[in-house]
Amino acid sequence: MGLTGIQIFKLLPKTNCKECGQPTCLAFAMQLAAGKAELSKCPYVSDEAKAQLSEASAPPIRGVVIGTGDNAVKVGEELVMYRHEKTFINPTAIAVAITDAMDDAEVDAKINNLNTVTFERVGLTLEPNLLAVVNASGDAGKFEALVKKAMGATEKGLILCSDNLDALEAGAKAAKGRKALLYAATADNADKVATIAAANEASVVAKGASIEEVSNFTKTIADAGVKEIVLDTGARSIKQVFYDNTMVRRAALKSKNREVGYPTINLVFEMTDDPYKEAMYAAIAIAKYGGIVVMSDVDKERMLPLLVQRLNIYTDPQRPMVVDQGIYPINNPGPDSPVIITTNFALTYFIVSAEVEASRVPTWLLIMDVEGMSVLTAWSAGKFVADAMAPFVVKSGITDKVNHKKIIIPGYVAQLSGEFQEELGDEWEVIIGTREASDLPAFLKEYK
Asked: How many CB atoms lie within 10 A of CB 41?
């Protein structure tokens, strides 16, 4: 259990300097107790107080970083049970498993998918994150060799999995400097695995047959100097995964139980041989608090829906998803191609662009920044209106790409056409488009 706000307040300097962003030290203490502030925000706290407060000020679910550089992935540090309360913070990491019992071709294919399967959406790059190297053979030499091969084949973070402590240590030494995650410490060997992890700058998975069993030895690992811990509660059915992930989150956030205040790992590749069922299990784990999900492969067919789902869940619900303002060419448009203008609300963009692409008509799509609002919402808010749209069109550079001055506006704002025409000038022709995006293909095919 963490300290209360009053207990924390007694250890603060009580200067009420406001440099932490809070009006008083008491308010700051309350934020620390709730896991909504960081102790580093206080510039005057003493070293002695820091030592006492570090545990209390840590997030209720500790963060764990796996990997280094641009490929480092952080899981944990969540503050709420439900996304609408505020937001979820660190997206579920998706890993692919390879084993030292696989042939080279299969290993290479899985690593290649990890390295190359990537999608662009809303200006973001969506991709799987980690490589789980599994010691299926029990041979320490083969495991170490596979770890070394993995390190040369990918820059992604590594999860090293072995029940053989000699093999785990050999793999950890080989991967030293890559901030690997060691799988797994148990009640019988927690101190030994923690020692291996501490010596090789790695984090640790605490594995047990239940939440209760795991909670009994996470403190042993932490006391050995390894603070970054991930939990495997032994769940190998989707019902148990759902239950355990939820109960771990609830215990950490609601009861402030530090022994289970860590992200979870779900080995969905061990739960079924059916790739589509595995994808469904992964989707449930992502939706219900899984910190890391390990799959048998990260092929495009299963990754696209999972990565988009993850993006949607871990997008701040208080901020709309947007695309960048600019000119988007669809179907290789030329100087004679039509020009359509709409807003930068991501859903609007994807629906409109998909329908335009389906029409096979080369088209220029002008996306205007209206702070992520849809067409009607932006119009009613005074952002998608003639006196704002006209300057955007003129400055966008679209006239350098086309040899005409015709522009199509959404049918839902047809009432803008006259004023928009006036703002643009007589040389422009404003054309009223369709009300529904689904009607765009037919409209564009008939457009002259």
From this structure: 15
